[in-house]
Design a protein that fits this description.
There is one protein chain. This protein has 214 residues and is an all-alpha fold. 61% of the residues lie in helices and 0% in strands.
Length: 214
């Protein structure tokens, strides 16, 4: 939502009005919840409780470190055999790093970057403001989810329970991510069809999309 507001032209001071209450809500949520407070403490120093709150983060970093440059080989990781919790969902990227190394991690990150770059091209070439903002919202949702997951798995942020789009095991998340990317593809297809010979772009600029007729 914030990305869409910025893209739509919200002034910085207007957008900034939401920051103080948002920070206050986050602080209140942490202060009033013991498990959230423990997550923050585990992020700051996971080795203070290596068998408790810090266990998950430590095992994730061990998996990443064991991968090295080329990894142990696809399917040959050890951390997934009862050491790393949530290895097939939230912390799948740690398993990728262990089995495929830096090269595999770079490939995964590169694929996400390719999706975002392709999406930005759709945004840049889309003439309709509403469809442009919808595309920005899709990119924000998918991109921010991927970034948050990668930050958590690599120990750069506290655990959040957010899956890695299109890779982590799951049902609803897969369906919603695929649906959002499908909307992005549909927007791009409509734009391409409108610029074909005889399309809407050649009929005085009038354009009617299959998603949002105008």
């Amino acid at each position: 939502g914030g990305a869409v507001l910025v893209a739509a032209g919200a002034r910085k001071w207007q957008f900034g009005l939401f920051i103080p209450p948002a920070v206050a809500v986050v602080i209140a949520a942490i202060a009033t919840s013991d498990y959230r407070r423990r997550r923050i403490l585990a992020f700051l120093d996971p080795y203070a409780d290596p068998q408790g709150d810090g266990y998950h983060m430590i095992q994730s970093m061990i998996a990443i470190a064991n991968g090295g440059g080329t990894g142990r080989g696809l399917g040959n990781g050890l951390q997934k055999f009862g050491y790393l919790p949530e290895d097939h969902t939230d912390f799948l990227f740690a398993v990728v790093c262990e089995e495929l190394g830096i090269a595999g991690a770079a490939l995964v990150i590169g694929l996400y970057a390719a999706i975002l770059i392709a999406g930005l091209r759709v945004v840049r070439h889309e003439p309709m403001p509403m469809l442009k903002l919808i595309a920005v919202g899709v990119l924000g949702a998918v991109g921010m989810q991927a970034v948050i997951n990668l930050v958590v798995v690599t120990g750069l942020g506290p655990t959040k329970g957010i899956a890695l789009p299109l890779l982590s095991n799951g049902g609803t998340g897969w369906v919603m991510t695929a649906a959002m990317l499908g909307v992005l593809v549909a927007i791009d297809r409509e734009h391409a069809e409108s610029h074909e010979p005889g399309g809407a772009a050649e009929d005085g600029g009038a354009r009617a999309t299959g998603l949002f007729p105008t």
